[in-house]
Amino acid sequence: MPPLPPLDFKEIQDKLSSRFRPLQRSFQFWVRVADIYTGYKVFQLRVSLVKDVEKQEAMWERQHEVAAEKIYAMCSDLGGFFLKVAQIIGKPDLAPAAWVRRLVTLCDRAPATPFDTVQLVMERELGQSISEAFERFDVDPIGSASIAQVHRARLRGEKIDVVVKVQHPGIEDLMMTDIRNLQAFALYMQKIDIKFDLFSITKEMEKQIGYEFDFAREADAMERIRHFLYKNNKKSPVVVPRVLQDKVTRQVLMMEYIDGIPILNLGDEIAKRGINPGGKIAAAAKQNILKSLTLAYGQMILKSGFFHADPHPGNILICKGSEVALLDYGQVKDLPDKLRLAYANLVLAIADNDPIRASESYRELGINTISACENEQQELFKLAQTMFDTKLPPGVTMLQPFSEESSIKKIGVQAFPEELFSVLRTVHLLRGLSVGLGINYSCSEQWRPIAEEALYLAGRLKDKDRKTKVHRPSFFRGLYRKE
């Protein structure tokens, strides 16, 4: 009998670790989220016993700070999908200020994959060594996000730099585990606390994030959006990187390098140049940035239906002359014409302050609601503004889904089409950017001409019913033209 081969304890350890890692993540998630959630529920009882309003506000601020540290620690330690969760909830209009201060620092802060692993992935995907393919390849990544990291490099025989996006090995299984845990928590929350179809939203997140692991699909999406924006404008409102089509695989994507600064660093850059942050030059630059993004998204969503669905700050670069570059096309959405036109109708309803039309649009979109209040139509309209406009309703400065005065408490959303989540998330991210830039505006008002054109071309709006003159903030005047 031949002797048995020696046991490879390292291999056994690695196999056991990979098998039990999803269970460990699930355990960590539930322990931490239960701690945060019960902390708020206990606090709600305690604060209800305090009658002094100022004392209540101070108590809430302290509670938010405690929770912010716990949420930050969970998202930072677990990484992966929870970095995306931090991007969604860490917005000035959606989360308490203490949360925003903590979570905004998590953009593109995922741990980097070691270079030797990156090298193995690239050589397997490209079929050649890094030294054969590149004249120069920066070992340290420019940034590392939840799914991939990016390196600056130069191909052999070329004169310009490229960006190489490389997927973190094994990340897909971990993120799918995270999403399933979040779905279970969403089901619990919508039954106990929030009258909103959260589960459908998490199902759409699962579908959309599943697409992000295929870089060939992302490359096609980038080229499609680039072609659309450059064809529909004399000058595209945003810069879309050019893909190197012969250098794309499922886990590696190469594109042109674009020089710019992250939008989160805009304030520091303005100060560094000696420009008054509160002056006219700074205000004009911020307005141009928001104008560019607003026009690009209005055209993508309402005219094409195919749009970049992830405008969080980590995906936006500011180039020379306040030019905006839009990066990362892993999350895109292709709205069916029926939903695209129904949303165009809702845009007009919000822009025209028309509650009746908003109610009709909700039904057309397949958003089923149940009322728990007398002034149902007005509350439904307020909910539409809260969900689908960058300008919050009068008197609302922050979304408070747990508050008894919240429209979500008064108008329960029993069914929410999964495909609309990308629109909802995009509008909320744009709102977060506008709040961060200090500009209060309504995207529905700005998108009205595009929505009218979409409905007119579909035969749903007569020429005589199109508004010829619409009041807009001064920095948007003259932005739209007939194409």
Account of the protein in words:
InterPro entries: ABC1_dom (IPR004147), Kinase-like_dom_sf (IPR011009), Mito_struct-func_regulator (IPR051130), Prot_kinase_dom (IPR000719). GO terms for molecular function: ATP binding; protein kinase activity. This is Protein kinase domain-containing protein. Pfam families: ABC1 (PF03109). This protein is α+β, with helices and mostly antiparallel strands and 483 residues long. The protein is 53% helix and 12% strand. The strands form 4 sheets. Strands 1, 2, 3, 4, 6 and 7 form a 6-stranded antiparallel β-sheet that branches. Helix 1 (9-48) packs parallel to helix 7 (171-192) and helix 11 runs parallel beside helix 17 (443-457). The longest helix is centred in the first third of the chain and has 40 residues, at 9-48. The radius of gyration is 24 Å and the shape is globular. Mean pLDDT is 84; it is low at 7-17 and 468-483.
Main sheet summary: 6 strands, antiparallel
Rg value: 24 Å
Multimeric organization: single chain
The number of distinct β-strands equals 14
Helix content: 40-55%
Tally the helices: 17
Fraction in beta strands: 5-15%
